[in-house]
Design a protein that fits this description.
Elements: E1 2-9, E2 20-27, E3 32-36, H1 43-50, E4 58-63, E5 66-67, H2 73-83, E6 84-88, H3 99-109, H4 114-127, H5 143-155, E7 161-165, H6 173-189, E8 193-197, H7 201-204, E9 209-214, E10 217-220
Parallel strand pairs: 3-8, 3-9, 6-7, 7-8
Antiparallel strand pairs: 1-2, 1-4, 4-5, 9-10
Helix pairs in contact: 3-4, 3-5, 4-5, 5-6
The chain binds adenosine-5'-triphosphate.
Protein name: ABC transporter ATP-binding protein
Domain ABC transporter: 2-223
Organism: Thiocapsa imhoffii
Length: 223
Amino acid sequence: MLAIENLAKGFGPMPGEPLFQRVSLQLAPGESVAIMGESGVGKSTLLNCIAGLEPVAQGRIRLAGVDLTRLAEDDLAQLRRRQLGFVFQAFHLLPHLTLVQNVALPLWLLGQTEAHAERRARAMLERVGLARRGHDWPRHLSGGEMQRVAIARALVHEPALVLCDEPTGNLDPQRARAVLELLFEGIRASQAIGILVTHSQLAASFADRTLRLTRDGLIPEPD
Ligand SMILES: Nc1ncnc2c1ncn2[C@@H]1O[C@H](COP(=O)(O)OP(=O)(O)OP(=O)(O)O)[C@@H](O)[C@H]1O
């Protein structure tokens, strides 16, 4: 369970005008939400706060009972490795690693053996339709293929929470749809919690519900 309570965040000197405040959200395993809202309202910042990459001015973020806002940096880094998966607009694959190695990376960081990690990475690549490309390099892939690898990497360690920032922003609608199907199928199959930040109605339609971030909290978006 993810429980966000009364979160506030600002970048100026504190106490100052917050970027957003009164952000509360509860999500159970297997549930997903899309967060939309005006450019600059703080959607990516909210994702970074949830990932423990940005300090918050106020509020709590509890993942499976652990309050991320109270963890020391080392514990937070460990929790991020174990419990979080990320998918970004710009893919962020490592260019000097093969596709299998890119997908195996989260497992190596968790201390799994190379052989075991690569076996699981190959199984994930098969799930996203790239089984035969495992020894290829990211630069040889199309944008849609790169994002499929990024999805495999985000899910390979079965994280509790998958954070996605405009994951189809660089893709045409047809590729976007295929990527979103894989992403949400993967999130549901592993009973992860999915949070998707997007301006795209198509992307948002894949989540269970859509919320709009305002300066004064999250409000339900009408269907
Ligand atoms: N590290 C930072 N220091 C100072 N200001 C920042 C920092 N990061 C983000 N901001 C500011 O916070 C505001 C919100 O940025 P953010 O990227 O979260 O918005 P967004 O809703 O995701 O926007 P978009 O939809 O355009 O991607 C912006 O005005 C941005 O300039």
